[in-house]
């Protein structure tokens, strides 16, 4: 399977930004991509740097004109497309939602982000209600996609649940970066930890991992911080954690990566982690902490 990853900076004008996204998707498709993955909340700048009720105006219904836009692209390019939208479920109830379109343009599933951060410049708990759809892979014409979103990528439980439910790969639309006041060595530790934990999910579950992050500096509208420098570094890891491709930390890129799903079958035969799990002894995982 050929996968396209769109790592891009975001424009403030919605129409221009959508046109840019469309062009990038079409570029991936023209190079043979069958599956194209976009970054987290790709339609707008990362508005969670501040707590502002006016930002709820950015949310969209599913379905809506927004999903129609991406549906038509998927259909015209004959690709499976993974998007990441700010979902308005009803007044006062919003989600950070990945929507997956099949090659015929139909919405085949969605995933609502389960783990919601609340850190300086990442005030997502103000905007998003935790997901209520569980960790269910989305069946597409290309296979079962285990779609998760950004902060979910730090949780081995989420990756494992997707794997146990039959996911054939793990996909993480992402928006993560540095605050300028962090020291350079701390910045690199953060980025390497982010890469390492996701490669670990690939190894522990014997599955490819696809991660697509934003790029570029996005100012803090409040001026409290110096904004977020999104570190890009989008990558694809194979089922032993091996890098199949990795983008830069400072450039826009459309990457085309070939994934051999048969390799997951072989790796799981060599390293049968699922077979050897001691499920009768894992009750404590449902507790917040074992006092």
- As a percent range, the share of strand residues is 25-35%
Number of strands: 15
CATH superfamily: Carbon-nitrogen hydrolase
Structural class assignment? alpha/beta
How far apart lie the N and C ends?
Answer: 46 Å
Order of helices and strands: EHEHEEEEEHEEHEEEEEEH
Q: So how many helices?
A: 5
Q: Work out the count of structural domains.
A: 1
Please give the CATH class. Alpha Beta
The helix content is 10-25%
Adjacency order of strands in the biggest sheet: 5-4-3-2-1-15
At the fold tier of CATH, the topology name is Nitrilase/N-carbamoyl-D-aminoacid amidohydrolase
Major pleated sheet: 6 strands, mixed
Low-confidence stretches: none
Give the overall pLDDT as a whole number: 97
Coarse morphology? globular
List keywords for this structure.
Nitrilase/N-carbamoyl-D-aminoacid amidohydrolase, globular, 27% strand, six-stranded mixed β-sheet, alpha/beta, 291 residues
What's the gist of this structure?
The protein is an alpha/beta fold and 291 residues long. The chain has one domain: Nitrilase/N-carbamoyl-D-aminoacid amidohydrolase, CATH 3.60.110.10. The chain is 24% helix and 27% strand.
Set out the fold topology.
Layout: E1 2-7, H1 14-30, E2 35-37, H2 65-77, E3 80-90, E4 93-101, E5 107-112, E6 138-140, E7 143-147, H3 156-164, E8 169-174, E9 177-179, H4 184-205, E10 209-213, E11 215-218, E12 228-231, E13 235-237, E14 243-246, E15 253-258, H5 261-270
Parallel strand pairs: 1-2, 2-3, 7-8, 8-10
Antiparallel strand pairs: 1-15, 3-4, 4-5, 6-7, 9-12, 10-13, 11-12, 13-14
């Amino acid at each position: 399977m050929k996968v396209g990853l769109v790592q891009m900076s975001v424009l403030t004008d919605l129409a221009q930004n959508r046109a840019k996204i469309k062009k990038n998707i079409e570029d991936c498709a023209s190079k043979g991509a069958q599956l194209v993955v976009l970054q987290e909340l790709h339609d707008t700048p990362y508005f969670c740097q501040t707590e502002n009720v006016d930002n709820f105006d950015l949310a969209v219904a599913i379905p809506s004109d927004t999903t129609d836009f991406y549906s038509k692209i998927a259909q015209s390019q004959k690709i499976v497309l993974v998007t990441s939208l700010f979902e308005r479920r009803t007044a006062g109830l919003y989600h950070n939602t990945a929507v997956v379109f099949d090659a015929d343009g139909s919405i085949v599933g969605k995933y609502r982000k389960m783990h919601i951060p609340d850190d300086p410049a990442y005030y997502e708990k103000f905007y998003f209600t935790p997901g209520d759809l569980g960790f269910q892979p989305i069946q597409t014409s290309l296979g079962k996609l285990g779609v998760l979103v950004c902060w979910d990528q730090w949780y081995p439980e989420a990756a494992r649940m997707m794997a146990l439910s039959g996911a054939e790969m793990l996909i993480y639309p992402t928006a993560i970066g540095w605050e300028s006041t962090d020291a350079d060595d701390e910045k690199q530790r953060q980025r390497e930890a982010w890469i390492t934990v996701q490669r670990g999910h690939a190894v522990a579950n014997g599955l490819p991992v696809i991660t697509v992050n934003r790029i570029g500096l996005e100012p803090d509208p409040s001026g409290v911080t110096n904004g977020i420098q999104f570190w890009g570094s989008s990558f694809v890891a194979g089922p032993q954690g091996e890098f199949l491709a990795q983008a830069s930390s400072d450039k826009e890129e459309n990457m085309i990566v070939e994934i051999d799903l048969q390799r997951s079958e072989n790796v799981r035969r060599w390293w049968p982690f699922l077979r050897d799990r001691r499920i009768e002894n894992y009750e404590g995982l449902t507790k917040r902490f074992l006092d």
